[in-house]
Design goal:
5-stranded antiparallel sheet; alpha+beta
């Protein structure tokens, strides 16, 4: 009753425009109960705009509650959980990848061990068969002792078995191989009764005919059968280069063997093995990453440094193995590169570096030489050309080459199983001649042949296989064929 009376009194007091501007607000209070609010602007504040009010405030509160509810319904408050789930999934994926990688490594190691076990089993089987053969082999027949004749006994030449005469000593003395005294000397044989003749064989040994016998240098006479040391594991090893340092420098010893797979555009890994046995097993002791990409199979080692051709250039690099940095670099003057003057098998073999008894060499060609082989002796420190020779054989017509004792030898074919070393050029006389020394390409794709001064052998890379050849040198021939003396620069 009181609010209605108040409303009536207020209505009587209002006149004119004031009545038009009166307003009634209705809204819920904080407890949810309906509340009516009646306002009348005063004459002083009649010009102020009316904004807000309790109803507007209530509407704002409801909108706020609605926004919170919508946010919850759409998952707005689960963003942190989703991020944590994503991180957990990423970590699980990384763990899975690591587990798969470790499984692959273990599988590879298992396969390698199984191969080695198979090899050991085969070796044991071979030894068992050899033992059986030795057991079943009959004993050699014993030569019957011929009793001495009475004339020998009476002459005093024979003594009882326990005597100490010279004849008894000859019959029982051990031979030079350290055999037991109970074995016969190979030079002693019993003859017919009545006499015994002891013969001595004399073999003439030729005296040394010059310094070549002492230095190990000479002219190549023959090349032995290829001996396989290892087969590459993958396509990157179809061709490559392997080598030893003839003058090894610390921290690597003289038995260290190095290998580079030359397939691909990113040739820069240098694998080091402690010795030939570790190379055969495939266990590198050191892996170096070359700072500049390498091209071809013409690299070599000398005095603790790797010498190689930089990819797509005529630049020669000297890489120090100990400090693992480039010690020198220099362009080989006018040398062709990247397929201008390769060997016949290809492989961008334009520049071929090698080492022999006389130092560091480069075999290549130039446009001035019109594709003929040029031989240059290089300073191993500065890489400057000390002297050059131009031959009369085209580089692209031969499969490969190597240098022994300052003499260049070229191989006729890289694919024929039975080919020849067909040409040699002596830098000491500046003369070349045709030869025909048999040479075998066992695996029919020989991409690298170099003389290894450390072992006095030829090293080669034949179609995934690392092989070596024994060689035999003889005295240099005095009369060479006068094919065409070529000038030395």
């Amino acid at each position: 009753m009181f609010p209605l009376l108040l409303l009536c009194v207020c209505g009587l007091l209002l006149r004119g425009d004031a009545q038009d501007r009166a307003s009634l607000w209705k809204g819920n209070d904080r407890s949810g109960r309906c509340q009516y609010t009646f306002t009348v602007p005063s004459p002083v504040e009649s010009s102020c705009p009316q904004t807000g009010g309790p109803e507007m405030e209530s509407l704002k509160a409801r909108l706020g509650l609605l926004e919170v509810l919508v946010s919850r319904l759409t998952g707005g408050d689960t963003g942190g959980h989703q991020a944590a789930a994503a991180r957990a999934e990423s970590q699980l994926q990384e763990a899975l990848n690591r587990a798969v990688g470790e499984r692959n490594l273990l599988q590879g190691e298992k396969e390698r061990l199984e191969r080695e076990l198979g090899g050991l089993q085969r070796r044991m089987e071979e030894m068992r068969r050899e033992t059986e053969k030795l057991r079943n082999r009959p004993c050699p027949p014993q030569t019957p002792m011929v009793p001495p004749s009475p004339s020998l006994q009476n002459s005093g030449l024979m003594r009882p078995a326990g005597g100490s005469s010279q004849m008894s000593h000859l019959m029982t003395r051990p031979n030079r191989q350290g055999d037991s005294s109970s074995l016969r000397d190979s030079a002693w044989e019993y003859g017919p009764p009545g006499f015994q003749e002891l013969k001595a064989e004399v073999t003439e040994v030729p005296a040394p005919d010059g310094s070549e016998e002492h230095t190990g240098c000479g002219e190549l006479v023959s090349v032995g059968e290829p001996v396989t040391h290892r087969k590459a594991d993958n396509i990157a090893g179809k061709y490559g280069v392997w080598m030893q340092d003839p003058e090894a420098v610390s921290p690597y010893g003289p038995t260290m063997v190095w290998r580079i797979d030359a397939i691909g555009t990113e040739v820069r890994q240098l694998f080091g093995y402690e010795d030939m046995e570790q190379l055969s097993k495939g266990f590198p002791a050191k892996v170096l990453l070359l700072p500049e990409l390498m091209e071809s199979t013409g690299a070599t080692l000398y005095r603790g440094c790797l010498y190689y051709q930089r990819r797509r250039s005529r630049t020669i690099i000297r890489y120090d193995l100990g400090s693992e940095h480039i010690a020198a670099r220099r362009d080989l003057p006018h040398a062709g590169f990247h397929g201008q003057y390769p060997y016949s098998w290809g492989g961008y073999t334009d520049i071929d570096l090698s080492v022999d008894e006389q130092g560091l060499w480069a075999v290549y060609s130039t446009s001035k030489a019109k594709g003929a082989i040029v031989i240059s002796q290089l300073d191993p420190n500065s890489l400057q050309v000390k002297r050059s020779w131009e031959t009369n054989i085209r580089k692209t017509s031969v499969a490969n080459s190597f240098i022994i004792c300052g003499t260049l030898y070229t191989v006729s074919s890289y694919a024929a199983p039975n080919t020849i070393i067909n040409y040699m050029y002596d830098t000491a006389t500046s003369q070349g001649k045709a030869v025909a020394i048999p040479f075998k390409n066992k695996y029919l794709y020989n991409s690298m042949i170099d003389y290894n001064l450390a072992q006095k052998k030829l090293f080669a890379w034949d179609n995934f296989h690392i092989v070596s050849y024994d060689i035999r040198l003889g005295p240099k021939q005095a009369n060479w064929g006068q094919l065409r003396p070529t000038g030395a620069n």
